[in-house]
Request: fold
Amino acid sequence: MTTTTAQRPAADQFMRRLLRVEGDPVPGAVFDAQNKLRSSIIISGIRCIITYLLVPIVTPLIGFMGVVAAPVSIALSVLAIVLGYNSLRRFWLADHRLRWRYTAFIAVVWVLLIVGIAIDVSHLVG
Reply:
């Protein structure tokens, strides 16, 4: 069953335009979305392990780690944001029934990642 643009609520139409999602649902996109979500969560987990576990333990042992940690954390955060966008787009391409819940979830994750990036940038600048 296809859903035309005229049959979609205005909020759905807005999000589809924002995410550059056009046309009918793409078969198999939900599996791709789940894989992208998994990758995004793994990258975020690696970033958290490096930032909050390894850096505090290793920094006293190796003085330069403090300088390296922030750029690595920023790069991993940006990668997680991009992967999150890709997975969000896939949820919308698939017209997944939980696309709005996932949109809310990824928005919270993005806010946390952006706060983390801001903190890392302030450490680099200050």
